[in-house]
Amino acid sequence: MKKWLALLAAAGCALSLAVHAADAPAKAPTAQQQKMTACNAEAKTKALKGDERKAFMKECLSAKKAAPATQQDKMKTCNADAKTKNLAGDARKTFMKECLSGAKAG
Question: What 3-state DSSP class applies to 46?
Fold first, then answer.
């Protein structure tokens, strides 16, 4: 009986920690992570594979300062990010608004 109580208490603690971890806000991505996301989205829209993709990613990630993104480029990147995050409905609408305006998600 004591073993079952100890096991039940341990399970309760583990569940409690898991719930708290799930509620923790996600950290904002770093500039390099944002660049990686944008480069991945662009490579995906261009349907690049293998060595061609590898060369594109190397060039994209090593670019010092990209020209300002056009609204169409922003839309492609934001759409790819929303799809990756499986957003729909109001959550997608809010994400797209923030993404296209350049606001930090929060």
Answer: coil
Is the Cα dihedral 70, 71, 74, 79 positive or negative? Answer: negative
In a domain, 6, yes or no: no
What is the enclosing helix (H) or strand (E) of 97?
Answer: helix 89-101
Please give the C-alpha separations between residue 28 and each of 5, 31, 104, 106, in angstroms, as whole numbers.
40, 9, 8, 8
Residue 54 within any structural domain of the chain: yes
Q: What is the pLDDT of residues 60-97, one digit of tens each?
A: 888 766 566 678 888 888 888 888 899 999 999 999 99
Residue 67's region, left for phi above 0, alpha for psi from -120 to 50, else beta, is beta
Distant-in-sequence, close-in-space partners of 34: CB < 8 Å, separation ≥ 6? none
Amino acid at 70: T
Domain span at residue 48 reads 27-101
Reported pTM:
0.39
